[in-house]
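Continuing from the previous page...

OK, I double-checked the sequence for Probable membrane transporter protein against my notes and this is the correct one:
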Amino acid sequence: MVTVWLLYLVLGAFAGVMAGLLGVGGGLVIVPVLSFIFAHQQLPPEHILHLALGTSLASIIFTSISSLRAHHARGAVNWNVVRQISPGIVFGTFLGSWVASRLSTAFLKGFFVVFLFYVAIQMFFNIKPQPHRQLPGKGTIFGVGGLIGGVSSFVGIGGGSMSVPFLLWCNVAMHNAIGTSAAIGFPIALAGAAGYVANGLAASLPPHTLGFVHLPALMGVAAASIATAPLGAKLAHLLPVAGLKKIFALLLVVIGTKMVLDLL
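Thanks. Re-ran it with the corrected sequence; updated structure tokens here:
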């Protein structure tokens, strides 16, 4: 049990540093690694990925608060955008978690792998959309929020890999896009975690779980990631971030390949 706790702490520490250093949500690492740990613990195989997704989103609740406060202090959060997009975010994330809880682990793992490769390509080649328009009206932004929230609930992330490109496309400056995306991550994490808790209550799960949230993993990952995220932010000013993003992208490809092999 001590070894498992150490794994949770190491995973959280790594995810926190990466989030602070590269601006990448920890869910991209937390979800696959938790699924490997849960499989080693022999948790119910039909619910392993549901537990990894729910636990990842629950951990992002805590890390996103720290992140959005830091960006808000620098005046980098466009709260008007946050208010407009949050209803769609909450609706899409909660609905997505309801749908995901009824899908098989194999399907969710396949969806996650496709998304992982998409993010890896985006990071490796530093793909950024060119600004072409202004922010859309309420109806469209609700739909965009619903889409970002729905996909985020399927892959257990705070949505930054989708919300930042969308905001850049809508002529939002880079530092504001990142700060606003950090704030958007909070309603995604809150609605997603609530959805996975509610939809997992009826499932046959081992002790120390609340719905599809594994409480020991949540405590270990969240505590370590909160502690190390500021370190990552400091390192961002000292290390070659562009090169590290390529290395991290390759790591995502390795993780995705391992998950594909597990599926086969």
